[in-house]
Amino acid sequence: MFTTFPGPTPRSSESGPNSASPNGSQPPRPRQKRSQVARACDYCRVHRIKCDNNHPCLNCQTRGGQCSNDRTNGVRTLPHAFREIERLKQRNQELQKELEEERSRNRNQAVTPARPSSSQLPTPPNISSISNSSITSPPSSSPSEALSSRRYWEGIYTNTARSASKTWYGPSSLLYFISRLHDFLASSLQQHLPESSLHPNSASRILDGPTSPPDKQSDGPDRLPADDSIKAKEYLTATQEEYFLDLYWQSHHTSLLVLDEDDFRRHYKSLWIGSRKKRKPSALVDIVLALCMQYGMARGRGNNNSALGNANVDTDDATLAGRWHYCRCQNLLACEMESPTISTLQCNILSVVWLCCASFQNMADSTLAITARTAQMLGLHLPPPQGMPQREREMRKRLWWSIYVAESKTSMKLGRPFMLHVSHVTCGLPADDHEAAAQSGSGFAPLDDDVTWLSWNLYNTKLVLAARDVYTAFYDKYPDFVENDGNQAIYDAPQAMEMYAGFLVARMRALEQWAKDVPNALKTQRKNNGIPFSTDLSPVEVEQFAPLWVQRQRLLLELLYHNLCTNLYRPFISFKRSPYSVVSSHPSSLAESCARRCASHAMALTHIMRQILSTTDILTGWQEAFQWEWNVSMTLIGFVLSHPHDELTQAARVAINVSADALGIFANSFSIAASAAGLVRDLSQKADRIIMPQPIYEGDRLITQGGQPITMVPQDEQTGTVMDQTGVESFIFDEDTIAVMQGILADSMDLAFAVDGYSSTNVLWPNMEPME
């Protein structure tokens, strides 16, 4: 009935004299601890038997059945799940980085020379992109020898901002283009031009000084007149501050998305708590005020049509308005450099804009480097944290890409290496949908079903990225088509230029595609069935009842497009051929076609600028627009001098006059624009005395269609020309013509430095006396 289980029988081997039990029985062994498993297999769980961590478990292995513990069902606890998610995210970032590096290598391989000659190695504009695979050198040569044998694009060392020290400007800069024009004319005239033509006519000054305002009772030479209520006081009252701050939201805010309007207004309101006469110090408020004063003063003068042709740049120029607020901002920022915040970054970005508008290009470039590193300190180049609110995540993206765009534009403008690279960035582009616009802190109405006020920033970023890709590929490819002669420049190799032109034309399709992708809501329509972003020179049709910020966004987008295209095509304005040659350029030449495209984009920008400035106030006081106009003006002058008999020369000559008119309108706002307008008019008139339309030979004389002879002294009875060492056909002119050309060169170079680097950085501290 009942089953009896016998007890354990002691084994003989375990019994002995040392047994602890008096009756000789063995004590029970301690129970072995059960092995813990996170999850039993299906078979063991159903039969409620012990499972283990083996795969398969011991029970299933013994019975020969299938075990559910086949490693596909891993641990499913919440901590393990979080760890797995983080691991997958990290792996995803690593794969994306590898993909970007692979794409970068493919682009570098696309421009790698077919021949392994060390003199033909491609040289990227930034040394960081040089890899071992891209350097082909003999086994015996050292890395330093390989680098020294690489060919680089030429640049120019020059002193700007009234400084004795020289700084370098690269091949894409306007200063280098003017230096090429200078060298060509000097060679053509067979006359040594004085070195002083490359220097501003001013004394050298120190670059540091006090940052606090001078005593109001000071009777120094830079004391401001008391009738100017803004300039006579170093800082503003609450009423004046409110006036200038209101300008920001309709001007810089819609073209530089770095501030949240709601957050800024709350911050500004908090500064007045506890005092009605004096607000608490704030670097962010000071730099915003400096920008608003700079723009507001220029805009007010432009609307009043106040001529500033004889104004003193150091004390009376609107671009220097707000300099005391800028200085105070820098003092406050010095305390935040060790522990930067988002506000610190915003101040640095706006400081770059103020310096750029004031034409302190080198200071802006240096501040931009600090800004880029600060952004990386804050991790803006990485995707925003997942737990951060969407509003803050989008702001971080807009901040990062604003810095990236500013750094790209500045580097391409000055011809210097890039500091930021896409391969190091994993942060996506900011959103421009209606949800992002609603959370942006500003209440601007949408422009279309899929277009908001944020869309301009997105397409502006895409434009600069596309232009930067073309720029990088173009200037990386320098040595590919140049002959083995180490002294030969790319501009002296017509066949190389022709091959280079085909390469650039293929790359420029990316910018053409960008122009097609821009939504109609961001385009300025044209009259007479004209096409936006084209070079057909059709008049623009400004939407009458659109807000001012919408009209400005549309115009800035198209003007930037034409300016970038002008700069990218400008290397093909070659001065190798004498501009006085009676043989016109070959119509099928790709290099000449690129030069014409450069002139076409420059003419398009000029005609749009003059129409807008003369009929509206959309761009009145906008300093960046003035810099674009100055850039294309000198480009058109270079095209006319190098292509006197081209099919576009007459239209380009007309555009120079249009450009002078546009600069003259800018002169109502900026003192430097008055000098620019006068120079362009003088250049056009003096160039007409030298370059005559369609010259005709009559015996030993070269006359124009109007019957006026060009004064020339023939060097040779048969040819009347000489050949310089570079093979450029040159003429010997009389003393009057040489004097005219020397005046052109001296004036153009002086003003070029004045525009790209203002008279002195000491205008920030006008009470400092110049050092002898």
TrEMBL record:
Listed GO biological process terms: DNA-templated transcription; positive regulation of transcription from RNA polymerase II promoter by galactose
Residue ranges of the region described as Disordered: 1-35, 93-147, 195-227
Single GO MF annotation: RNA polymerase II cis-regulatory region sequence-specific DNA binding
Database matches in PROSITE patterns: ZN2_CY6_FUNGAL_1, ZN2_CY6_FUNGAL_2
UniProt feature, compositional bias: Basic and acidic residues: 93-105, 216-227
Ranges of compositional bias, category Low complexity: 126-144
Highest taxon, organism lineage: Eukaryota
CDD domains (alphabetical): fungal_TF_MHR (cd12148), GAL4 (cd00067)
Start-end of Polar residues biased regions: 10-26, 107-121, 195-204
Zn(2)-C6 fungal-type domain segment(s): 40-69
Keywords: Metal-binding, Nucleus, Transcription, Transcription regulation
One Gene Ontology CC term in the entry: nucleus
SUPFAM superfamilies cross-referenced by the UniProt entry: Zn2/Cys6 DNA-binding domain
InterPro entries for the chain: Fungal_SecMet_Regulators, XnlR_reg_dom, Zn2-C6_fun-type_DNA-bd_sf, Zn2Cys6_DnaBD
PANTHER family noted in UniProt: REGULATORY PROTEIN GAL4, TRANSCRIPTION FACTOR ASQA
Identification of the protein by name: Zn(2)-C6 fungal-type domain-containing protein
Top-level taxonomy: Eukaryota, Fungi, Dikarya, Ascomycota, Pezizomycotina
